[in-house]
């Protein structure tokens, strides 16, 4: 007869413990799980991603109902266990169900702490704890505008970011003068606040909530200083309290949480506790990694595997708010007995601090760049002695090669957790590589779930791969262009040129594509390479173009489009502005906005209205949607500016007219500044021109978007004609050697600035490149005109038929 | 309850290019009519199960379409989202008159909005 194991609480900690137990002793117990929520086990940490719109509810389910069935587990959702009889060894639920146990695990987690102020029970006042709270917030966002989050900690800020994404006005109220004061020092906290204010959050600091006002629903909050704040929705995210009601009624010893020993046992035999409800050595943890370590101890004990028990955890936290990288671990505040290494770069928005005591790193705070997080966390956990080389903790030693990620992985014990979200250890990843043949991060993700949730551990998973498979050709993972081929960009382009392939179909046939018609990754890429290699012979494959380049407008999330007419060099006229205004009125354009590239965006246009609007505008397409030259941003230059040394506007207009409509591996942005003050921000563009007295400096490979990168100086020239010659040669060299979708910033780093300089150095080489780009340019046509003029093109913009309810009846 | 079907004429096979789609709107319902390589036609609801992306604007590869918003891969044969994603799009029967190339779409009566 199998023993009976009952788990009270169907959350991450408890179910993970069962998963670990099943691995060690698959058939030892008859398992029953009770959960109060109606859902199977889901990843509570990712609720903030659901709220932020980055994940769906179904994306965050960890164990589907089928998993319980496959493992013979009886799952009772929507059952709250209300009583334990430790003598008869039974548990009873609120629905009257009673079950016997031989071993019992309590994993009741925690409850959100609600401020006990008058009015806290009003409609629209909620916590941020479960799927139901998430749904309430999403519903509220549809009807209401003003949200107040009480609590400026990790959870509160994640909730606030989610509400911003739902288009609510969000104010965060915090009783402390600094945000995330339990994880960050004041410097990092101030940087964080600035960043979040930039994203649109408002903050009310050092405020104590006294009362929640309103009739049935919340209307405002009043603070102890007499001020108040309007609110249609109040989210309390001030902390959690271990859920100990059940344990207390059973007579189990409790303090803050359920008191457990090193083996996670309570004072009553055969009753264990794990997770946020448990208190070990005076600490109740609210983060996921320690919970997995605790679960592992119970799993070992229940399966008869030896363990020396649980000895507490050092925890690290990361804020999951897009655009803000924050990491904190261990002791983060300075104390009289500690000294710190600090790096602060206001230009790059980076702050790093490592707190050192007696030659050991005992804590760290990182802001803006958290790449050192796992390395520092490891130093904290291992207590490595860094005496005499404290500086190198944050700054690489000059000369000495820094330890590689793979070296650090080699030193990790097998049971160290690599993926904190899913509790995947280094050992589990190593065996997936060795036994199941995983050879890429993607395969490891599919096999073990490592990096499947927040993705923060991806670099570390990559290091484990390098550690096992070796970096020097033992087995390097070959990444093809896409899943249809193992060939990379260079091999494919070489084949296109050598074998004179002129259609995608030929390429896929000849090179043995595994999917006959390719996929959404390779089809547009091949179409580009073919057009670049054979501009005359290759016929553009409209069906292989991404929607924006096929419809010559930018698709928005609701299926409408945006229209951006060309405005050369950002210079316009009253007549053109009037025309744009009239057309915006005529077509009821819901939003008119200035773009970052100095032109006007008409947003929210229905697809069927596009050809009509283009015809009425009678202006060239601004190509604000394509992998091509977008804009050439300019300052006024010497025309008006007292500092200007050259005609920046004229130069910009010339460049834009020269290179518009040209296809490229990725979008290309340019700018021209009339003096070194560089008001057009030319040094973060794909190609930037900065006027100096008597000439121009040419900059390449900059990016102000996804990954900030300042330009490299390519060369200095004297005349406008030379600017055109160098820019043309540079863009053509990029067209011929860049990977599809690779911006110049990535391309410059991949091929190297010296290679580019060498390719453009000789005048005859530049002229040859220039000749090829001129030819490609001579074949381009304005796409809007083309669609207006060709019936077979413009009719695809309207439905085949449209029946309104009236005509259908 | 029996589902009565309504047949509607929506155009000619020549109106749609290969590996492309056109849209048919019936009241609130939007249907994408795809023409695959070789001329076979498929009709599915023009709404990705993920975030409602317009599938008619996706890239068609064999009998699949990739949603333009987040690249979900949907089978045009049965409307199923391909792993690792999960979901399903409604499919509709479509007929071609062999002689004239005229296209007829069958819709359940209730979705054509009772009047």
From TrEMBL, chain A:
Pathways involved: Nitrogen metabolism; nitrate reduction (assimilation)
GO biological process, one term: nitrate assimilation
Name of the molecule in the record: Nitrite reductase (NADH) large subunit
Binding site for [4Fe-4S] cluster: 635, 641, 675, 679
Domain NADH-rubredoxin oxidoreductase C-terminal: 316-382
GO terms, molecular function: 2 iron, 2 sulfur cluster binding; 4 iron, 4 sulfur cluster binding; flavin adenine dinucleotide binding; heme binding; metal ion binding; NADP binding; nitrite reductase activity
Family annotation (InterPro entries): BFD-like_2Fe2S-bd_dom, BFD-like_2Fe2S-bd_dom_sf, FAD/NAD-bd_sf, FAD/NAD-binding_dom, FAD/NAD-linked_Rdtase_dimer_sf, NasD-like, NiRdtase/SiRdtase_haem-b_fer, Nit/Sulf_reduc_fer-like_dom_sf
Cited CDD domains: NirB_Fer2_BFD-like_1, NirB_Fer2_BFD-like_2
Cofactor(s) recorded in Swiss-Prot or TrEMBL: siroheme; [4Fe-4S] cluster; FAD; [2Fe-2S] cluster
UniProt domain Nitrite/Sulfite reductase ferredoxin-like: residue ranges: 556-618
PANTHER family linked to this entry: NITRITE REDUCTASE (NADH) LARGE SUBUNIT
NCBIfam families referenced in this protein's UniProt entry, alphabetically: nitri_red_nirB
Pfam families: Fer2_BFD (PF04324), NIR_SIR (PF01077), NIR_SIR_ferr (PF03460), Pyr_redox_2 (PF07992), Rubredoxin_C (PF18267)
Domain BFD-like [2Fe-2S]-binding per the UniProt entry, residue ranges: 417-465, 481-530
Domain of life (superkingdom): Bacteria
Bound cofactor: record note: Binds 1 siroheme per subunit. Binds 1 [4Fe-4S] cluster per subunit.
Family assignment from sequence similarity: Belongs to the nitrite and sulfite reductase 4Fe-4S domain family.
Domain FAD/NAD(P)-binding, residue spans: 4-280
Domain Nitrite/sulphite reductase 4Fe-4S: 626-763
UniProt entry keywords in alphabetical sequence: 2Fe-2S, 4Fe-4S, FAD, Flavoprotein, Heme, Iron, Iron-sulfur, Metal-binding, Nitrate assimilation, Oxidoreductase
Residues that, per the record, bind siroheme: 679
TrEMBL record, chain B:
InterPro entries: Rieske-like_NirD, Rieske_2Fe-2S, Rieske_2Fe-2S_sf
Database matches in PROSITE patterns: RIESKE (PS51296)
Keyword Iron-sulfur: yes
GO molecular function, one term: metal ion binding
Keywords on record: 2Fe-2S, Iron, Iron-sulfur, Metal-binding, Nitrate assimilation, Oxidoreductase
Domain of life: Bacteria
Domain Rieske: 8-103
GO biological process: nitrate assimilation
Lyase recorded as keyword: no
PANTHER family: 3-PHENYLPROPIONATE_CINNAMIC ACID DIOXYGENASE FERREDOXIN SUBUNIT, FERREDOXIN-RELATED
Name of the protein this chain belongs to: Nitrite reductase (NADH) small subunit
Annotated source species: Paenibacillus methanolicus
Lineage: Bacteria, Bacillati, Bacillota, Bacilli, Bacillales
């Amino acid at each position: 007869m199998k023993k009976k194991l009952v788990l009270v609480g169907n959350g991450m900690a408890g179910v993970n413990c069962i998963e670990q137990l099943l691995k060690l002793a698959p058939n030892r117990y008859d398992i029953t799980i009770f959960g109060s929520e109606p859902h199977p086990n889901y990843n509570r940490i990712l609720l903030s991603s659901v709220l932020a719109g980055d994940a769906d509810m179904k994306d965050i389910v960890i164990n589907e109902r089928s998993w319980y069935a496959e493992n013979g587990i009886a799952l009772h959702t929507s059952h709250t266990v209300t009583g334990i009889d430790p003598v008869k060894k039974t548990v009873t639920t609120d629905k009257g169900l009673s079950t016997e146990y031989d071993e019992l695990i309590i994993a009741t987690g925690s409850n959100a702490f609600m401020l006990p102020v008058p009015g806290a029970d009003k409609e629209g006042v909620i916590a941020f704890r479960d799927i139901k709270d998430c749904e309430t917030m999403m519903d509220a966002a549809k009807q209401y505008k003003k949200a107040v989050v009480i609590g400026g900690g990790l959870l509160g800020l994640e909730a606030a970011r989610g509400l911003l994404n739902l288009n609510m006005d969000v104010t965060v109220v915090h009783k402390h003068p600094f945000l995330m004061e339990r994880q960050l020092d004041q410097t990092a906290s101030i940087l964080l606040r600035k960043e979040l204010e930039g994203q649109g959050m408002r903050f009310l600091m050092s405020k104590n909530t006294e009362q929640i006002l309103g009739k049935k629903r919340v209307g405002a909050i009043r603070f102890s200083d007499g001020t108040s704040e309007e609110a249609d929705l109040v989210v309390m995210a001030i902390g959690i309290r271990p859920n100990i009601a059940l344990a207390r009624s059973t007579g189990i010893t409790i303090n803050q949480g359920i008191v457990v020993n090193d083996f996670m046992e309570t004072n009553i035999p055969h009753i264990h506790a794990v997770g946020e409800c448990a208190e070990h050595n005076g600490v109740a943890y609210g983060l996921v990694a320690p919970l997995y370590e605790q679960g592992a101890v119970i799993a070992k004990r229940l399966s008869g595997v030896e363990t020396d028990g649980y000895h507490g955890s050092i925890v690290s936290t990361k804020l999951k708010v897009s655009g803000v990288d924050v990491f904190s671990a261990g002791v983060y505040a300075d104390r009289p007995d500690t000294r710190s290494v600090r790096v602060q770069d206001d230009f790059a928005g980076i702050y790093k601090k490592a707190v050192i005591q007696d030659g050991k790193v005992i804590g760290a705070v990182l802001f803006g760049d958290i790449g050192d997080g796992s390395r520092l966390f490891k130093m904290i956990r291992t207590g490595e002695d860094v005496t005499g080389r404290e500086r190198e903790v944050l700054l690489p030693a000059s000369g000495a090669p820094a330890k590689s990620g793979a070296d650090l992985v080699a030193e990790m014990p097998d049971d160290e957790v690599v993926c904190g979200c899913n509790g995947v250890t280094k050992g589990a990843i190593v065996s997936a590589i060795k036994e199941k043949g995983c050879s890429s991060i993607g395969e490891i993700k599919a096999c073990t779930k490592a990096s499947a949730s927040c993705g923060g551990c991806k670099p570390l998973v990559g290091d484990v791969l390098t550690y096992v498979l070796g970096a020097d050709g033992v087995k390097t993972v070959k990444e093809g262009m896409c899943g249809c081929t193992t060939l990379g960009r260079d091999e494919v382009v070489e084949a296109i040129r050598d074998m004179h392939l002129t259609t995608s179909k030929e390429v896929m046939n000849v090179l043995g594509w595994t999917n006959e018609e390719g996929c959404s990754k390779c089809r547009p890429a091949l179409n580009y390479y073919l057009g670049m290699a054979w501009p005359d012979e290759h016929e553009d494959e409209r069906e292989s173009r991404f929607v924006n380049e096929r419809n010559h407008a930018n698709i928005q999330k609701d299926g409408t489009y945006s229209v951006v007419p060309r405005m050369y060099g950002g210079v316009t006229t009253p007549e053109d502005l009037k025309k744009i205004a009239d057309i915006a009125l005529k077509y009821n354009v819901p939003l008119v906005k200035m773009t970052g590239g100095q032109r006007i965006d008409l947003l929210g246009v229905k697809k069927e209205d596009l050809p009509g609007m283009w015809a009425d505008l009678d202006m060239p397409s601004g190509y604000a949607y394509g992998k091509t030259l977008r804009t050439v941003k300019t300052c006024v230059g010497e025309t008006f500016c007292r500092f200007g040394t050259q005609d920046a506007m004229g130069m910009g207009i010339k460049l834009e007219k020269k290179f518009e409509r040209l296809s490229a591996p990725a979008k290309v942005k340019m700018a021209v500044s009339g003096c070194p003050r560089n008001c057009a921000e030319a040094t973060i563009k794909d190609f930037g021109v900065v006027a100096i007295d008597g000439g121009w400096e040419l900059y390449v490979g900059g990016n102000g978007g996804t990954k900030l990168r300042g330009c490299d100086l390519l060369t200095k020239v004297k005349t406008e004609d030379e600017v055109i010659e160098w820019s043309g040669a540079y863009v053509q060299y990029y067209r011929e050697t860049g990977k599809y979708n690779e911006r110049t910033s990535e391309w410059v780093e991949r091929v190297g600035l010296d290679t580019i300089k060498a390719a453009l150095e000789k005048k005859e080489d530049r002229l040859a490149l220039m000749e090829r780009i001129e030819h490609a340019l001579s074949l381009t046509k304005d796409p809007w005109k083309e669609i207006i003029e060709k019936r077979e093109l413009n009719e695809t913009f309207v439905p085949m038929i449209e029946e309104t309810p009236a005509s259908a009846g | 309850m029996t589902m009565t079907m309504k047949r509607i004429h929506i155009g000619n096979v020549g109106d749609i290019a290969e590996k492309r789609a056109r849209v048919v709107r019936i009241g609130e319902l939007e249907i994408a009519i795809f023409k695959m390589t070789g001329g076979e036609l498929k009709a599915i609801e023009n709404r990705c199960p993920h975030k409602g992306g317009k599938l008619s604007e996706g890239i068609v590869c064999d009998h699949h379409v990739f949603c333009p918003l987040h690249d979900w891969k949907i089978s045009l044969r049965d409307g199923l989202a391909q792993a690792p994603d999960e979901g399903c799009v409604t499919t509709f029967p479509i007929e071609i008159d062999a002689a004239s190339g005229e296209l007829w779409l069958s819709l359940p009566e209730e979705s054509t909005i009772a009047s």
